[in-house]
Amino acid sequence: MSDLTRLTAADLAGLLASGEVSSVEATRAHLDRIDAVDGDVHAFLHVSDHALDVAADIDARRANGQDLGPLAGVPLAIKDVLVTTDMPSTSGSRILEGFMSPYDATVVARSRAAGLVPLGKTNMDEFAMGSSTEHSAYGPTRNPWDLERIPGGSGGGSAAAVAAFEAPLALGSDTGGSIRQPAHVTGTVGLKPTYGGVSRYGAIALASSLDQVGPVSRTVLDSALLHDVIGGHDPHDSTSLTDAWPSFADAAREGARGDVVKGLRVGVIRELDDQGFQKGVSESFRASLDLLAAHGAEIVDISAPHFEYGVAAYYLILPAEASSNLAKFDSVRFGMRVDVPGGTVEDVMAATREAGFGDEVKRRIILGTYALSAGYYDAYYGSAQKVRTLIQQDFAQVFGSVDVIATPSAPTTAFRLGEKVDDPLQMYLNDVTTIPVNLAGVPGISLPSGLASDDGLPVGIQFIAPAREDARLYRVGAALEALLADQWGAPLLDRAPILGGAR
Fold first, then answer.
1. Which residues contact 32 (CB under 8 A, 6 or more apart)?
2. H helix intervals, 303-358
3. Phi, psi (degrees; rounded to nearest 5) at 386
4. Domain, as residue range, for 173
5. Is the pLDDT of residue 372 over 50?
6. Which residues are known catalytic residues?
């Protein structure tokens, strides 16, 4: 493996800026890595034919003295939920197979403008519905720590690409944990921004009130650098906040110095006891809290009584919004079409949706349509929205007494492929700690906290902050990351049996 693929995005950017490495060299190294290992990992659905040309253009602009962004020349993987003009955008579904968008998603356009080099589009659960990337119409992605295990979902492709050193950075989307839960099981870093803090324009919608685009990386600083590129107001997105955001990279650098830990108030939700959590996950979480406490943090017992109802509310709100958003894939306006000789438009639509959608998508469309139907709206969707309000109120009250909330990022480490695919309820429960963050619209970050004592697989810790306080998460995340790095002596991924097969 080329040493260039082992570098963090920040370190690689430094070499590019100094002229010690060219973007063509860095891009070629990552393309070679993809060629070498992605047949096993299957992180990518499409690899760009233009990456080296883009990299050469960045090198030429740098040689001409142009003022380029801090990440110019760094390769980037893009979750296939984000539309691109030069690569297919399928959202992991057959119904969009081969679809070419006439425009770039805002976050993609901003990445290009900042000089990042798109490597390709990453695999995902179909229309972001799943927690394992087993529901992709194009086959599952595998976890680089153990090829017989899942990389999380729906953004397992982006997390696996970063963990397998196929890309230093990736774009993901998070509707109920689809950035943070894959980060948890792959030993990577992922942040779900404040709702409206990053544009959703050009992100193929699943649940519009929950979806949020965010960064995936191997370090907190790398995520912050990418967040600085993609964040900010977008007039194309009616839900985009008009706030002036601070530099998240500066916040991460501040946190890495360790000054923020002393006096930090970290809330731990008493309703989230160890029951239902894998032993190794709970142990790693408690060890991280002890480490923070040893350096001056105050661990505060808090109550968020409606947190545990998040999963139930989410799986009414999400299917309802998904059934509406996916109605446009009707064989007429978007996507594939299955011809039915002599059939009506309704016959063609039914045949197309039957062939084009997978089982999980159909399940959620049916559930959502039922929840929105006359006579059931108030009982189901309306009630779920009331629970959502109660969760928001819980967060508002708790943040009056603590700076951040800490939870395990998921209840278990990566489970085996096929283990839960036929048990939707168990799959849904995997997002129990991440879902409330989306329901409340607040930011959350997952970073590696170690390896589980019972199976040796990665574990993540999640920090949650009030809305608009994404910079606080970068400070706290970088502070813990630095403390853990001192303890480990090397990055966690350096201990991974990358592509080592089943344990």
1. 2
2. 310-325, 345-356
3. -65, -40
4. 3-255
5. yes
6. 79, 154, 178
